[in-house]
């Protein structure tokens, strides 16, 4: 919280546009400012299913971490410090190493809410339209272990963050695409089962980590994003199967980006309806506020403009941003949506709405994008198949699959296998069954041929797992956890003192290695510890510094050195 010494700052912030916005929404500005101007506590998600989850929990407890009570179905933790105020270097090193090795995912607590509200089923295909940096997309992937997540990001720069987050978690059930969300490619029938639209927004509820917003925001900022937000959501609604559900969310306080956007989405996509968010059931103990239907018009000085029946001439303001009473329309049940304010739960702020494609409104039984606008009066034609390039993911050759399975003792039927250059990725079979194999109809009624992802622009399929090193398929470090229950060959059992000596910098020659080991790629095994190595003239670890640090913590090397 903000200390008494910062009272002068609070007095200054109380005059800023964001404070006026909060006041216009009926928020107690004095209580809100105390938290909205303070740093966020570090929060994170524990990766489910890892073999050493109990060890990770113990480490989090050792530095004061506590489970977040209002997230009963997602194991989330909150720490007693902010990102910039960690107690010591050792704690900072622990936090970084746990995240980088995929044991936890640093994520703002309220950012975890949209996937929880969606309630995806384990075998569904889910689309995240604006996925980078990947915290929600990976959370969704963990929630659908037998399904698939299409993680989409239009920006090449942000795409790299998404790829990194997918990689460190070893997720096979994520497929990464690069589309402008307003023009996402057509998907084979029947469409996607669930969608999260975490729309680009002004971030007016993120003041605890984006301090510049206090001086930067004005009402025209949210109005400038209204069309983009609703266009992305409308395209997503066209891809949703009848009966499927879609979450729309922002990290903004501004009703223009929230309730007004929902009204516009429902006007443009009449096959949707709002679903009442059962916050008490899904997020027990979290204090929420219900969506509003009487938001005010604000001028550029964030003063409330009295409604006279005529649209005020304000920058970016259009009629579809007015509240229902001003438009003389019946309001949809906007109290079905929820708002989370920073000061109520010591979090950031968020807005969440849940929408459903009403099955009876689409008797064709498929997503709206697959329904032709007019009947085709000719035979549909099959269009030319797109030529692959060096960045295209294609099914791995059977010879390659057989070689890898023989080398590592894997069952080829456990995964779908893909190749991109010298890398082999493992993915959930749904990637092939629902997206790659089927042919896809275009808007004119013709068909893109099957056995291709086109017209989707797929950047990555599944988890990069093996790399070709001079004809030897070496497992990547970040894929070890997904391979752990499947490996039968290539494992070399060693004593702990060998692992310790190599962690302390020794690189033994193959002749001096205490057990027989073949040249090429192997994995040293000592109890639960798996350490990938490359064997040439010497035996070398193939682990980065973060993995080594975690292994040292587990073995207690640092403690042993201090005792000596």
Description:
30% of the residues lie in helices and 21% in strands. It is an alpha+beta fold and 564 residues long. The protein folds into three domains: 106 residues, 2-Layer Sandwich (Alpha-Beta Plaits), CATH 3.30.70; 258 residues, Rossmann fold (3-Layer(aba) Sandwich); 74 residues, Archaeosine Trna-guanine Transglycosylase, Chain: A, domain 4 (Roll). Strands 5, 6, 7, 8, 9, 10, 11, 14, 15 and 21 form a ten-stranded mixed β-sheet that branches. Strands 16-17-18-22-23 form a five-stranded antiparallel β-sheet, sandwiched between helices. α5 packs across α19 and α10 runs parallel beside α11. The longest helix is centred in the middle third of the chain and has 20 residues. The N terminus and C terminus are likely disordered.
Brief summary of the model shown:
This protein has 20 helices and 27 strands.
Question: What brief labels describe this structure?
Answer:
21% strand; five-stranded antiparallel beta sheet; alpha+beta; Archaeosine Trna-guanine Transglycosylase, Chain: A, domain 4; ten-stranded mixed beta sheet; disordered C terminus; Alpha-Beta Plaits; 3 domains
Overall SS class: alpha+beta
List segments where confidence is low: pLDDT < 50 over at least 5 consecutive residues.
Answer: 1-5, 559-564
Task: Determine and state the CATH class of the largest domain.
Answer: Alpha Beta
Helical coverage, percent range: 25-40%
Q: Give the termini separation.
A: 42 Å
């Amino acid at each position: 919280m903000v200390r008494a010494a910062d009272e002068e700052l609070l007095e200054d912030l109380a005059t800023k546009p964001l404070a006026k916005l909060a006041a216009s929404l009926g928020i107690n500005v004095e209580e809100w400012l105390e938290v909205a101007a303070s740093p966020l506590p570090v929060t994170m998600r524990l990766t489910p299913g890892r073999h050493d989850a109990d060890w990770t929990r113990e480490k989090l407890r050792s530095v004061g971490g506590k489970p977040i009570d209002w997230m009963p179905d997602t194991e989330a933790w909150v720490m007693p410090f902010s990102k910039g105020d960690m107690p010591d270097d050792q704690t900072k090193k622990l936090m970084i190493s746990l995240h980088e090795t995929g044991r936890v995912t640093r994520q703002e607590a309220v950012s975890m809410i949209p996937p929880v509200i969606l309630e995806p089923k384990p075998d569904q295909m889910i689309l995240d339209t604006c996925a980078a940096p990947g915290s929600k997309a990976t959370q969704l992937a963990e929630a659908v272990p037998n399904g698939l997540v299409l993680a989409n990001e239009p920006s090449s720069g942000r795409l790299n963050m998404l790829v990194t987050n997918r990689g460190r978690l070893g997720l096979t059930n994520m497929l990464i695409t690069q589309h402008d969300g307003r023009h996402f490619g057509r998907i084979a029938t029947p469409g996607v089962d669930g969608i999260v639209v975490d729309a680009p927004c002004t971030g007016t509820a993120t003041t605890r980590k984006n301090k510049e917003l206090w001086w930067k925001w004005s009402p025209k900022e949210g109005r400038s994003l209204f069309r983009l937000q609703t266009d992305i959501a409308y395209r997503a609604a066209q891809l949703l199967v009848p009966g499927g559900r879609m979450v729309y969310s922002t990290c903004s306080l501004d009703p223009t980006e929230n309730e007004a956007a929902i009204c516009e989405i429902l006007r443009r996509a009449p096959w949707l309806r709002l679903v009442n968010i059962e916050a008490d059931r899904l997020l027990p103990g979290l204090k929420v506020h219900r969506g509003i239907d009487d938001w005010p018009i604000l001028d550029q000085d964030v003063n409330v403009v009295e409604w006279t029946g005529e649209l005020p001439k304000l920058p970016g303001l259009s009629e579809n941003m007015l509240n229902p009473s001003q438009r003389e329309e019946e309001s949809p049940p906007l109290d079905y949506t929820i708002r989370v304010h920073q000061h109520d739960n010591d979090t950031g702020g968020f807005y969440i709405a849940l929408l459903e494609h009403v099955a009876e409104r689409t008797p064709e039984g498929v997503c709206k994008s697959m329904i032709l606008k007019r009947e085709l009066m000719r035979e549909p034609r099959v269009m030319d198949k797109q030529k692959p390039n060096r960045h295209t993911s294609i099914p791995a050759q059977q010879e390659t699959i057989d070689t890898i399975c023989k080398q590592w003792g894997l069952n080829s039927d456990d995964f779908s296998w893909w190749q991109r250059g010298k890398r082999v990725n493992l993915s959930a079979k749904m990637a092939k069954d629902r997206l790659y194999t089927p042919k896809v109809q275009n808007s004119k009624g013709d068909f893109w041929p099957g056995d291709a992802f086109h017209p989707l622009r797929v950047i990555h399929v599944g988890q990069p797992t093996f790399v070709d090193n001079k004809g030897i398929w070496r497992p990547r470090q970040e894929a070890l956890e997904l391979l752990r229950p499947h490996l039968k060959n290539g494992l070399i059992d060693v004593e702990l003192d060998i692992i310790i000596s190599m962690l302390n910098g020794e690189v033994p020659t193959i002749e001096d290695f205490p057990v027989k080991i073949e040249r090429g790629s192997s994995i040293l095994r000592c109890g639960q510890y798996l350490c990938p190595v490359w064997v040439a003239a010497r035996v070398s670890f193939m682990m980065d510094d973060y993995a080594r640090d975690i292994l040292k913590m587990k073995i207690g090397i640092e403690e042993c050195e201090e005792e000596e």
